[in-house]
Amino acid sequence: MLYPELFIVFCFGAIIGSFLNVVTLRLGTGESVVSGGSKCFSCGKKLKWIELVPIFSFLIQKGRCRECKSKISLQYPAVEILTGLVFLLIFNFQLPVFNEFSIFNFAKIFYLLAVAAFLILIAVYDYRHQIIPDIFVYPFIGLSFLSLFNFENWKLIIENFNFSGLSAGLILFIFFASLWFFSGGRWMGFGDAKLALGIGWLLGITNGIAAITLAFWIGAIVGILLLYLSKNKYGLKSSIAFGPFMVLGTIISLFWGEKMISFLF
Ligand SMILES: [Zn+2]
Fold it and tell me: Domain range for residue 173?
């Protein structure tokens, strides 16, 4: 049984998720991401270690600051749980590599964790600010580009270069860049085009198209729901960011892309 291992992986993911929260909240505020203790956004009280335990602290404090009782954003536990779950998925899908331990297999897991971390940063930041910062999307594109090489065989690294994967990224990029260009940035931002480039390189053409299709479907369903809710009680929100849906589609396709496609055809 693997339950204790999986629990540790989830906790590790939740801790990384708590760090990703700090990164998205401090980016552009002039505050350092790595130094300076965490404090309450309302009253500025420095947080003790007991108030910084992912998920757990939020639950025992019932989502409020212990000092000023102001509400703590649901983003904290949500991103912590999400990151924990994505890390669990990565380990679960990569479990066979542990039977055959090698530096290459180990590096592959860390590679996927890094990809997931940047995707989560992009989704959370785009959700909050409707923009995808270059500082998140360029590392993601760089990591995706690495996936086009076959590092298992150094001698054939040029011969085995994945040219179809390379073109997949370019095709998705051109598709989103056209949407951005012809709509004057109203339908899509240029950041979405950059994200699509990385998605194509990471997933290849079939899974890449599957990820984008899923993003449009899920985006449409959520859009209709929001429109329905806005008529009843919420103020009409003019637009919703598309980045989080692209990230969701990418994560689903990364793990279940082949299954999904063979199920459909
Ligand atoms: Zn406070």
Answer: 101-265
